[in-house]
């Protein structure tokens, strides 16, 4: 159950693409509303999770950032 009293829906979003195209920047912008101009390559896979209220229910997004 969620904090809003509705079932928690979970979604996994996997970001795939060539190196240096902005996958990590897109995820960082969504998660923290910020942008960093410096480039640091993702090694392997990074994972972030965020819960949000959408259409009368709580959803949990699992964001997978690939190298």
Notes on the protein architecture:
- With 67 residues, this protein is mainly beta.
- It has one domain.
- It has one helix and three strands, in the order βαββ.
- It has one helix at residues 23-32, and strands at 9-15, 45-54, 57-66.
- The protein has a three-stranded mixed sheet with strand order 1-3-2, with helices on one face.
- A hairpin with a 2-residue loop joins strand 2 and strand 3 (57-66).
- The mean pLDDT is 89.
What's this model, at a glance?
The protein is mainly beta. Helices cover 15% and strands 40% of the residues.
Helix-strand layout with pairing:
Layout: E1 9-15, H1 23-32, E2 45-54, E3 57-66
Parallel strand pairs: 1-3
Antiparallel strand pairs: 2-3
Listing every helix as H and every strand as E from the N terminus to the C terminus, the arrangement reads: EHEE
Structural class: mainly beta
Largest sheet: 3 strands, mixed
Number of helices: 1
Please give a handful of descriptors for the protein shown:
67 residues, mainly beta, 3 strands, GTP-binding, nucleotide-binding, GTP binding, Rab, GTPase activity
């Amino acid at each position: 159950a969620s904090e809003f009293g509705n079932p928690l829906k979970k979604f996994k979003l996997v970001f795939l693409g060539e190196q240096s195209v902005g996958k990590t920047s897109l995820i960082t912008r969504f998660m923290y509303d910020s942008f960093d101009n410096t480039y640091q390559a993702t090694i392997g896979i990074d994972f972030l999770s965020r819960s949000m209220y959408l259409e009368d229910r709580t959803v949990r997004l699992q964001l997978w950032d690939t190298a």
